[in-house]
Amino acid sequence: AMAAQMTDAHRRFLQVLMSHGIMEGSVARKLYRRCCEIHKVYYAHDKLDDFITTINSHLQPLFMQVRKGLSESDGRAHYALVNLAETEITRMASDYAENELELFRKTMDLIIFSENGFASSTDILNLADQLQTKKMKKKEAEQLLKVFVEDKWLSERDGEYTLHTRCIIEMEQYILSNYQDVARKCNICHSLAIQSQMCESCGIVMHLPCVRKYFRAQTEPRCPQCNDCWP
């Protein structure tokens, strides 16, 4: 089957998404509508995913893809443009110095090995003078954390850092293959879960928004896997 044609509406949508890097679902839907109106292309309010499928069929030869993912804090859909040709860590290598990359990797370790999917700024800053590549002053490390947040690799809340939604969408495969013993998928939505709750009996994990949604209808919350009480 021939891929549907890319129109100027598709091109405009892609350009705006590229400049943002990531976009919340409601914003993406508004943009989709706007692009169709400007370029007089047929618009159907429930066809955003088809519209994106068309874009993706044309991005395939370029090893790029628009991917959908969920925010771990509120469960909202987001769309991000992902580069499939190089792993995200290699792509980061063109933007950051070696010791900056090392600090990011170590921060990622802290976040992924933590119980709740967060690492405190204190713990991260303590790593700065233990770097193998080149030690970093605390001030430099503080500045770098700000840059990681601006560049949407990390999110920060009250001095606690976690992986940004864009980072999770982009790095899901990398994380699942490099942290095989600890990285888990959410039992409900089947995407990578960093901020999550774990069943104390069988060890499955669920995102917090997925937990809320799943247990909304149940009087007594029980694990979807082993049926034990969910604390």
Automatic annotation (TrEMBL):
Protein location: Chromosome, Telomere; Nucleus
Q: Which residues form a coiled coil?
A: none
Q: Which SUPFAM superfamilies match?
A: Cysteine-rich domain (SSF57889)
Q: How does it assemble?
A: Component of the Smc5-Smc6 complex.
Q: Which reaction does it catalyse?
A: S-ubiquitinyl-[E2 ubiquitin-conjugating enzyme]-L-cysteine + [acceptor protein]-L-lysine = [E2 ubiquitin-conjugating enzyme]-L-cysteine + N(6)-ubiquitinyl-[acceptor protein]-L-lysine
Give the originating organism. Eubucco bourcierii (red-headed barbet)
- The main location is nucleus
Q: Which InterPro entries match?
A: C1-like_sf (IPR046349), Nse1 (IPR011513), Nse1_RING_C4HC3-type (IPR014857), WH-like_DNA-bd_sf (IPR036388), Znf_RING (IPR001841), Znf_RING/FYVE/PHD (IPR013083)
- State whether keyword Zinc-finger applies: yes
- This chain belongs to which protein, by name? Non-structural maintenance of chromosomes element 1 homolog
This molecule's function is given as: RING-type zinc finger-containing E3 ubiquitin ligase that assembles with melanoma antigen protein (MAGE) to catalyze the direct transfer of ubiquitin from E2 ubiquitin-conjugating enzyme to a specific substrate. Involved in maintenance of genome integrity, DNA damage response and DNA repair.
Q: Which PROSITE patterns would you find in this protein's record?
A: ZF_RING_2
Give the first-level EC class, as a single word.
transferase
**Similarity comment text for this entry:** Belongs to the NSE1 family.
A cellular-component GO term for this protein: nucleus
Query: What domain of life is recorded for the organism?
Result: Eukaryota
EC numbers for this chain:
2.3.2.27
Q: Which UniProt keywords apply?
A: Chromosome, DNA damage, DNA recombination, DNA repair, Metal-binding, Nucleus, Telomere, Transferase, Ubl conjugation pathway, Zinc, Zinc-finger
Q: Name one GO molecular function term.
A: ubiquitin protein ligase activity
Q: Which BP terms in the Gene Ontology apply to this protein?
A: double-strand break repair via homologous recombination
Residue intervals of the RING-type domain? 186-227
Q: Which Pfam families does the UniProt record give?
A: SMC_Nse1, zf-RING-like
